[in-house]
# Entry
Amino acid sequence: MPTKFLELGPEAARATILFAHGAGAPMDSPAMTAIAGALAKQGLRVVRFEFSYMANRRTGGTRKPPPRAEKLNSEYLAAVEALQIDGPLIIGGKSMGGRVASMIADELFEADRIAGLLCVGYPFHPIGKPDKLRTEHLRHLRTPALICQGTRDQFGSKDEVSGYELSPAIKVRWFEDGDHDLKPRKRLSGFTHADHITAMGVAVVDWVEGLVG
# Structure
């Protein structure tokens, strides 16, 4: 089926970010909308899309579970092919969407198709299973990458991730007391969710400028 895109931000942006959703929420979920809005506010163009299992939920009336992440690699590559842009492209996504992007990033980077990889809330391991790491390919990643992660993310907290062997191409930007959506507990952190989402947008645009000028 043809890829449908949801676009936000200026067409003449310094870079376009192709951004995929997580396992359980669509491309127009509150979390995805907040992330896209923060990035667009910083002058970036954000293009969201859905994997076929999620798009089918809109018309099929059933909630089939997502397939294994690696089985979505070809769909992400198809979205890259379908997106006609001029200028630098960064791929990434929220949670599972970022994980899928990370698995195809080096192939595209080495072909000079993308400038970088952006992950928000990377699922380093399943909840409650810290020994089942999803980091093997991240040890040798060559694509410049930014991971925006809450310090108490159940899919990989700061304490856990600090012990992982990650490629020097990866930068991790931590958000104090943030959960998987970067949402903090205000009474403990002094930050609001809006504070962290805004700071995420600023961190991303600063990183993008370092990549593409």
Remarks:
- The CA atoms of residues 36 and 46 lie 6 Å apart.
- The chain has one domain: 5-212.
